[in-house]
Amino acid sequence: METFNTSIFPKGEKAPSDYFSGGTAWVHILKPNEENLNCQIGNVIFEPKCRNNWHSHGGGQILIVTSGTGCYQEKGKPVQILNPGDIVNILPGIIHWHGAGPDSEFTHIAINPNTQNGIVEWLQPVTEEEYNNL
């Protein structure tokens, strides 16, 4: 199992288990949401196999992968493998999930723009069957 401890940001707070499964994730908010800029930015670290629930963002989301190997999937589409330097542009309202691969910790910066349209709508967990179909 690969572990990366090279983040320039603090590990952050443990993410709520209501919205993450398969392991532990930590979130460090780099830029809180505010009306003047309507944007929230966070650094998220996932243990191997940890992923978030299916969800969508009213304002869309941008992921910038900084370390490890991860996964991203939109509802009804194949899983994409993510590596450091990858950028994922997620349009508003697209149902998706993201998280670590089975053998690697995974870190990304999550940018939530247009927060006046909603930050996140959480849905059901990604099942073991869905995750294991990687």
What does this protein structure show overall?
With 134 residues, the chain is mainly β. The protein has one helix and 13 strands, in the order E-E-E-E-E-E-E-E-E-E-E-E-E-H. It has one helix at 128-132, and strands at 13-14, 20-21, 25-31, 39-46, 51-52, 55-56, 61-68, 70-74, 80-82, 87-90, 96-100, 106-113, 121-122. The strands form four sheets. Strands 1-3-4-12-7-10 form a six-stranded antiparallel β-sheet, with no helix packed on it. Strands 9-8-11 form a three-stranded antiparallel β-sheet, with no helix packed on it. The longest helix has 5 residues, at 128-132. The radius of gyration is 14 Å and the shape is globular.
Question: What is the secondary structure topology, with strand pairs?
Answer:
Blueprint (H helix, E strand, L loop, with lengths): L12 E2 L5 E2 L3 E7 L7 E8 L4 E2 L2 E2 L4 E8 L1 E5 L5 E3 L4 E4 L5 E5 L5 E8 L7 E2 L5 H5 L2
Antiparallel strand pairs: 1-3, 2-5, 3-4, 4-12, 6-13, 7-10, 7-12, 8-9, 8-11
How much helical structure, as a percent, in the residues? under 10%
Side by side, the strands of the main sheet go 1-3-4-12-7-10
**What is the count of helical runs?**
1
How many strands appear in the DSSP assignment?
A: 13
Radius of gyration: 14 Å
Name the assembly state.
Answer: single chain
Shape: globular
Question: Which class do the helix and strand fractions yield?
Answer: mainly beta
Q: Averaging pLDDT over every residue, what do you get?
A: 94
| Sheet of most strands | 6 strands, antiparallel
Uncertain stretches of 5 or more adjacent residues:
none
Protein name: Quercetin dioxygenase-like cupin family protein
InterPro entries: Cupin_2, HNL-like_cupin, RmlC-like_jellyroll, RmlC_Cupin_sf
Domain Cupin type-2: 44-100
